[in-house]
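stage 2 :: seqdesign
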């Protein structure tokens, strides 16, 4: 039922050693497994109303419960991933959609027109780390008596006019593995406390955490073109899946699109907490901004980004752009070792059905390129070359 940003798996056959491997998400450097703290933790990790979950989706579920949204109407964007909608539906919320432009902009006036006496909350996604008009939306929520939930799954470390995204709403949620090399992790905030919702007590299975940490580390070795890393990663993935099958349990890929109610009470893994403490957050934000600017300067003529400008304070998660030849581009880039995401091709079973044509355009055409902190000059040049070749090849 749900959709994930589909990413290209590495080709099964061993790629030639010189080929680039450019992963979509940050990779795990072996040094990050050491205990200790690298730098002070920033917002949201310092927020007094924070809670950690194994994935952000369970934080969304908990926020909806804490806000008492069962049976109540939530205004929700017509363009979305799917699992966040599953989380709200699982908490019993009733959904009413609002318009999202093909430029990923949302309009507070359009949202205001949709508010009725039934509406209890507004759910806003800061796409790819770029801010929604959150001050206007906060004001709207104040005036109309709505709870505001900020989905910052893409927006860790992003701010607008000096205030961090996620600090405006009554609730906010962050998905860590998109921005950081943790095998799991979601952070949820409630500005007025968690009512009587208990803290998640379980931890994810060690085998699952270890398998995904290993995969992130092998991705790192392959990205750095260490000898035999590509075949090791490919074999490791196959062995991991076989081990899960032999234990009678399902192998659950990272970034699984499913909302699993049995996991709602699960906290972030200890390994992810350890990896978190080793991050240099200021350096990550600086690098991501520089990488986005680098791609913008070299790709805007052939792959203009959906967000042209890079506003001060934005920590971009991806470089999103649109192409009518998305499938072909996807394949051409995968063949060159570039992992690329499709920006939510599948609609939800309960999603809008033709009423929001711009959201349909995005589901058909939007792609995202990596711009994460692991990409240095050589990787960025390979990425630019690969995109230019792929675009030329499909046009
Ligand atoms: C916009 C959005 N919100 C929420 C989520 C859920 O995050 P997680 O995978 O950590 O549960 C995702 C996941 O891709 C997402 O894209």
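stage 2 :: out
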């Amino acid at each position: 039922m749900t959709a994930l940003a589909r990413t290209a798996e590495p080709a099964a056959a061993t790629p030639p050693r010189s080929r680039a491997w450019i992963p979509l998400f940050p990779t795990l450097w072996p040094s990050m497994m050491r205990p200790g703290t690298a730098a002070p933790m920033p917002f949201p990790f310092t927020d007094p109303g924070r809670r950690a979950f194994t994935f952000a989706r369970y934080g969304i579920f908990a926020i909806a419960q804490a806000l008492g949204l069962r049976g109540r109407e939530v205004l929700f964007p017509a363009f979305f991933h799917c699992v966040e909608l599953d989380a709200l539906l699982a908490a019993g919320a009733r959904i009413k959609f609002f318009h999202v432009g093909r430029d990923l902009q949302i309009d507070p006036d359009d949202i205001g027109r949709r508010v009725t006496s039934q509406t209890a909350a507004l759910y806003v996604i800061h796409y790819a780390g770029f801010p929604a008009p959150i001050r206007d939306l906060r004001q709207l929520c104040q005036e109309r008596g709505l709870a505001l939930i900020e989905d910052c799954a893409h927006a860790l470390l992003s701010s607008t006019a000096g205030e961090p995204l996620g600090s405006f709403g009554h609730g906010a949620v962050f998905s860590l593995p998109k921005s950081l090399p943790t095998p799991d992790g979601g952070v949820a905030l409630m500005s007025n406390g968690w009512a009587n919702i208990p803290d998640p007590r379980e931890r994810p299975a060690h085998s699952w955490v270890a398998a995904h940490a290993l995969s992130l580390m092998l991705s790192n070795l392959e990205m750095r073109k260490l000898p035999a890393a590509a075949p090791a990663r490919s074999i490791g993935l196959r062995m991991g899946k076989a081990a899960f099958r032999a234990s009678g349990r399902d192998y659950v890929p990272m970034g699984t699109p499913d909302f699993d109610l049995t996991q709602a009470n699960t906290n972030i893994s200890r390994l992810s907490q350890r990896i978190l403490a080793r991050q240099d957050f200021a350096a990550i934000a600086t690098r991501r901004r520089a990488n986005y600017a680098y791609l913008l300067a070299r790709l805007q003529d052939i792959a203009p980004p959906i967000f042209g400008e890079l506003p001060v304070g934005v920590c971009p998660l991806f470089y999103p752009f649109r192409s009518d030849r998305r499938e072909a581009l996807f394949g051409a880039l995968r063949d060159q070792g570039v992992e690329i995401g499709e920006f939510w091709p599948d609609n939800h079973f309960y999603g809008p059905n033709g009423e929001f044509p711009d959201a349909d355009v995005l589901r058909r055409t939007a792609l995202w390129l990596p711009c994460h902190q692991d990409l240095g000059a050589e990787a960025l040049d390979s990425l630019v070359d690969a995109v230019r070749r792929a675009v030329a090849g499909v046009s």
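stage 3 :: structure notes
- The radius of gyration is 20 Å.
- The chain has twelve helices and twelve strands.
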